[in-house]
Amino acid sequence: MPLSPEPPEDKESTVTQSPEPEEVAPAHTLIPRDAEHWSKPVTRLEVGEVPASAININVTGRRVMGPVQGFGKMWQKTYRIGLGRQAEPREVILEWKKNFSLFWPEGANFYGPVTGIAPGEVALLNLSMPGKLKLSTGVLVLFADDEAFTLMTPQGHMFAAWITFTSLEYEGQTVAETQVLLRANDPLYELALGMGGHKKEDAFWTHTLSSLAAHFGVEGAEVSTKVVCVDKRRQWSKAKNIWHNSAIRSGGYMMGTPFRAVARSFRRPRK
């Protein structure tokens, strides 16, 4: 659900400032959709069957958080890549949803539900971080249809964000797009964004779109990046979000692994 169809830009990145947050609306609010394509209201997240290899310590029981509830500056980032005429937009979205995790960089694991990317479903994310830390977080599928899908982040995630994936036709070619409206969730994450986090986020989605293009036989296409600072203010009333910081909690969980192993060895087997 892009703000407006634009061709992929030649230059690598464009950064602009917007004085008022009202000037840029969340991408998924601009076009009305049928109710069946939206998630029902969610109070607390619930995760279905969890694979043995996945870590779920920061998702079950958490609330979802959009950019309004975040702490840091609000950013809108739009990443686009041209696919020529290799596929129609709906075909791109179908393949993107079906093989979503395959396009991610190595070390980023997406444990989606058995039903696939559908409204109201919750997926676990396990992300490799510096220092061999495995960060546990997740996403809610806020919206999904044949033309686009949107993910929303939970408490403790790096960002309070809406992430929308869509495809459209422009000047005779198909374009794939990822658009992120985000704030860092707490002061620690805001600091991390300023110390290279933004570049890593850009590299993540650049890799994803390049992998998607390669899936359709398009090699070497350039990913354009447009960055808009929607709101330069930091919401200090949201600094308390750090209580749910998934990096801190994931680090504590990993440090406790040896102690949990010892405790399990003393447990009596159930009859």
Characterize the structure shown.
The chain has 4 helices and 10 strands, in the order βββαββββββαβαα. The protein starts with 12 loop residues before the first strand and ends in a 5-residue tail after the last helix. The chain is globular, with a radius of gyration of 19 Å. The longest helix is centred in the C-terminal third of the chain and has 29 residues, at 187-215. It has helices at residues 89-98, 187-215, 246-255, 257-266; strands at residues 13-17, 64-65, 74-82, 108-111, 122-129, 133-144, 148-154, 159-170, 173-184, 224-231. By secondary structure, the chain is of the alpha+beta class. Strands 1, 2, 3, 4, 5, 6, 7, 8, 9 and 10 form a 10-stranded mixed sheet that branches. The chain has one domain (13-24, 34-266): START domain (Alpha-D-Glucose-1,6-Bisphosphate, Chain A, domain 4, 2-Layer Sandwich).
Main attributes of the structure:
alpha+beta, Alpha-D-Glucose-1,6-Bisphosphate, Chain A, domain 4
| CATH topology annotation | Alpha-D-Glucose-1,6-Bisphosphate, Chain A, domain 4
Fraction of residues in helix: 10-25%
Shape: globular
Uncertain segments:
1-12, 17-31
Distance between the termini: 54 Å
Output the structural class. alpha+beta
Indicate the CATH class: Alpha Beta
Radius of gyration from the CA trace?
19 Å
Mean pLDDT level = 84
The CATH fourth-level homologous superfamily: START domain
Write the layout of secondary structure elements.
Blueprint: E1 13-17, E2 64-65, E3 74-82, H1 89-98, E4 108-111, E5 122-129, E6 133-144, E7 148-154, E8 159-170, E9 173-184, H2 187-215, E10 224-231, H3 246-255, H4 257-266
Parallel strand pairs: 1-10
Antiparallel strand pairs: 2-7, 3-9, 3-10, 4-5, 5-6, 6-7, 7-8, 8-9
